């Protein structure tokens, strides 16, 4: 089992249903869709509510994995859910006994693995499920990116509209420990109509590129391109993202 506990942000249905309401661009979806063009099979690890998995399922076999029942429940109620094979499992121990043309971990799912052991385990899962000519891609935020990692309520508060609860005030608070690379954060949602506030916290790990490079190599994988964002720019030391695109070594 993963040494990284699953946050209530993903396990509690009342919180998980806010996940797709967050206003964030998803350039990762466009990149992964292009990468999937010649793939007949795709494995999505840490698929969350399954938006990408479902979008990729037209014309190919997609298996989408997440240990959080609430996220998977939301994924399975999508209109286009039937085309995807949904698996409730931990990506660090998953062994499906088959290989895929493309393996993706989007939305910084790689950062939920909080120890080197857990990171090694998920990379081993990627290696165990990649077809000989298959590709993998994932994103992890660059610890050297200059953007703020400490955030408070005033800086992050914004309004969203929940389909059932109506207007909601949402905010997040985060604290970063550079020594460990762990960012602790909480997401909160205050439902205007009732005044009820729902909150949960989680932790994610930031990994320097040189450390990641070693872990990927140890797992028997090799990187063809290091990207610095999902628009496809090459990685630079201060890039926002670290995005390895690679295959079996
Ligand atoms: C930030 S969300 C990303 C979801 C989705 N990939 C996206 O792009 O929106 C992180 C996801 O990782 C999942 N997760 C947490 N622990 C995991 C584990 N051990 N194995 C696989 N997924 C895990 C969470 O349940 C959550 O759905």
Walkthrough of the structure:
With 249 residues, the chain is α/β, with parallel strands linked by helices. It has two domains: 8-142 and 208-248, Vaccinia Virus protein VP39 (Rossmann fold), CATH 3.40.50; 153-205. Helices cover 24% and strands 34% of the residues. It has eight helices and twelve strands. The longest helix has 14 residues, at 116-129. The two termini are 26 Å apart. The model has no long low-confidence stretch (mean pLDDT 95). S-adenosylmethionine (SAM) is lined by residues 2, 4, 6, 10, 45-48, 52, 66-68, 71, 90-92, 106-109, 112.
Q: In the CATH hierarchy, what is the superfamily of the largest domain?
A: Vaccinia Virus protein VP39
What's the number of helices?
A: 8
Largest sheet: 8 strands, mixed
Specify the CATH architecture of the largest domain.
3-Layer(aba) Sandwich
> On the 0-100 scale, what is the average pLDDT?
95
Distance between the termini: 26 Å
- The amount of beta strand, in percent, is 25-35%
CATH topology of the largest domain: Rossmann fold
**Number of E-state strands:** 12
The CATH class of the largest domain is identified as: Alpha Beta
